[in-house]
Every structure is written in C-alpha cells, then in structure tokens.
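Input:
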Amino acid sequence: MSTQKFCGGVSAVGVGLRQYKRGEAPMPEQGVLVQAIVDACEDAGINPADVDGFVSYGDDKNEPVRLMSDLGTKNLCINTQVWGGGGGGIAAAFGLAAAAIGSGQARTVVVFRALVQDNSGRMSAAVMRHHLNDHIIGAGLIAPAQICALRAQRMFEYHGISNAITEELVRASYYHGSRNPEATSYGKELDIDAYRNGRWIAEPFRLFDCSRENDGAGAIVLVADDVAKDLRKPPVRLLGVANGCEKGWGDLLENDTHYDSAGFRPVAKRLWEQTGLTPSDVDVVQLYENFSAQGIASLIDHGFCSYDNVEEFVRFENLIAPSGALPVNTSGGNFAQGFIHGFGTAVESVRVLRGESANPVADARVCLLAGGPGAPTVSSALFGRADL
Amino acid sequence: MKGLGADAPYWQALQQGQLKLQQCSDCSQWHWPAVWRCGECGSWEQQWREVTPRGRIYSWTRSHYDFGAPKGLPLPYVSVVVELAEAGNLRLLGHLAANSDKQPAIGMAVEGELFHCEVDGESIPAWRWQPGNTTTEAAQ
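Output:
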C-alpha cells in the first residue's frame, strides 16, 4: 500500500450511536445528537469540550455552533458539511475531517449525523427535494426508491442478471443483524417467504429490498495518529477517502452515462490509486444499502465482482462473517441494523476493525465504507488497523 | 419547480404542444438538463430544436406504493426513461400508457403524447408514452 499517510495520518478513536424506532426517540434531535457525541468522546477517553471541529452530510439540520453550550466547546475551528441530500457524503465527511486535522485547522473533529423525524421530517422526502422538478414529478417519480428502481431495472435487464441475487445480500444483512443486540432485527433472521412475497414498492423492489428509517444520531471522533495512540481504544486509521463523480454523472434527469452503476466507478478508482490498495486487500465491507440492487452495484463498481460473475460472487455464504470470503454489513447494515442516514455503517467500520463487532471478522485489517449508491455524488473510505 | 431556469423554453414549447430540446449552436451537442453555457465547447449560443417524441425505453419501474403521485396516475403505473435517437439519445421521463397490454421492456419503441397531471392543484404537462409501431418505424 501507499507509504504516504492520508492527511498526515488520522485515526478514528471514538464512536457513539443512539438508535430508536422511527418516531420513538426519547428527546428531540439535538438532544440525541449531544448524547451520541458525548458517547463517542467517552469511548475515546477525551473531554467533549476539546472537540474543535464538526463535519456532517446529507443536509443535517444541527449547526455545530448550537451544540457548543451542551458540549462545553472551547474552540470551534471547523464546521462544515458535504453537499447533497443523500447519503453520498457519508465517507466524504471523513475526508473533510481528516483534511482539517492534516492541515492544522482543527485537532479533534467529530463526524456526525442526526435524524429524528419529528424534527426533520421523512428522510426520503428530504432527499428527493434536491432533485424534484416538474419533469420528474410528472413521470410519477417522487421517491428515491423509484429512481433507484429505474437504475436497478437497467442493471438487471440490460446485463441479464437475475434479480434473485438481491435476496443473498438482504439475507446476509439480516443474518448479521439477528446476531447484533443493537440491531432493529436482533433475534430475527430474514423470513425468505416474507421477502419473496413482500409487497411491491417499485419494481424490481419489494418491501425488504428497501432500507429502514430510524430516529437517532451517530458520531465518530477523529484525531491525528500521534494523539490517537495515547487514547482509550485501539485507533482505526483512515487510509483514504474519495468523493464526487465524473463527467456524465450527477443531477442529470436520468441522463447519467453509466446508468446501470451506483456511481462509484470513478470514486473507487481514485480510492484504489490513492491508497495503493486493491479489492483483494479488503477484509470486510460496510455497504450503504439504501436499496438491495444499489448495494450490489456498489460491489461491482468497486471491482469486487463484475456484471459477468456477480451471480457467483453475491452469495449468502460468501457475504457472512466469520466464514465468508467478503463479509458485508457485519452489524446488519441499513436493512437490519437500522438506518440513521447510513451512519451505522460508518460506526461498524470502526468497530469491526477494533474487534468489537457483534459479528467479528477474524484478523480484519482493512474495511471499506461505501456511501450513498445512486446519489449524484457518492463517496468511499478505507479504514485500517493501526498495525496495518 | 421547473428547474433552475435554463429549461424555460422546454416548458413554453410544451404549452404549444411541441417537444423542443436544447442543442448547442456551435458544436451541436444536445443538452438535457438545459444549460446556459455549453460545457463541451464553451459556447453561450443554444438553440431549441423541435424533436419528434419517439424513442425507446431505456429503463422502467412499475410503482405500487403511493409516494404521493400526481393526480391522473392511478396505481400501479409504469414510469419510463425514454431515449430519443433524434436528439442525440437524450433521455426524457414519463409514464407508459395504462391501456398498453404490453409488458414494458428495455428497447421497446414508444411514441409520446402530452398529458396533463395535477400536483398540489397545479396542472403539469408531462409525457405519456405508447408502445410504437416498430414495423412502421423500420420501414421509414
């Protein structure tokens, strides 16, 4: 791998995740967020007042300056978020945090996302407001599920891929979620008949092809490596981040060039070049699955498999920990763990490399986080153990 | 709700029952979404060409869940992305006519007609696509 450390060497040192059923958060959004940030600081063993930077994504409504009184913030040095209403900014947020630390603009940066729907409304509607105009609405396209369904249909029908493979990914997520006490689906594996006969949402998606929506908040604390080594938990290094899109992709009224993809092709290429790593170096993947087919397209885009061999690769046995060749969504992911705009997948990226996952992957050294498939901009990050 | 403004001639043409799409006056690049400046050649001169609403289905989805569809689109309905060969394979959106007994498929030839649906009490012009006569098209 590359000998040059990303942003001079930055590590995730603390995680916090508070998750509730939609509509059942015990307090408003800002309160839940403060709790998650304090949880993350306690996990790291740092004083919340020392956090001096905040980065979010997806149109988070909690402007960091309003958190200062609760956290005791001494200095606010970085407060920003990634453009875009979807989850495509999740990994990019870590890139901004690392850039702030690497450039000396901040020392202790929290990446966060909070979503309590009594305050912020339905997630899906918020995402679509970015894209809706009369041309899209007039076609009856109102929700992300429908846009992703169009792209999924193109992938399956044009490439002749059986859409039965989505079941393999969804089953793997539920297998992990059923074994994760923090997951919404804890204790419940996927009922295959219920999956196959689930009500149609937008073809080719049935109910269980769609992610959940939860209330909650998550936070991850990042510091420079030389600070990280003296904190409570084993640091998890941020190996690299890539974000964005290339010409021919974006907010193009469904005129995107690689329409059958999840938009990661150029982003993944940059991530591999930046880190010197390849798909074969990745031990475990946290996939942001808004919809089942987009999770599969993400795997193809990153080069884990191709349109030709995806049916052999995306097999339940291959995707589960500890025995699978490439365990995916070891916390249950957005389908089975829960969905706070994907933040659970970021938290799990850190936990699985610390050995804290409910579904441990023995000797996992590198984890890919792939965020927001199908969004106008997407982002991916690689995390690695400090002893990598 | 009608985009960021460069597409105004598209909506004006629809009001007159025509499909017009934007093409660069200098390098002939088709643009949709509409642009102010052609990113291919740097030209600020764009023209709006009348295009026959005839193309092929690029992708489709049949919606069964009511996300808040416009009035006039009863569930389930099929939304389509249609590629227009006459306009440099630009893709337009719309829905497949409900009276079509054909299963939608990528590559299916379709012809568009204007359709007015209602959203929040406002009438919106949209496209309804009918399976086209492929033999006629081939003969042309």
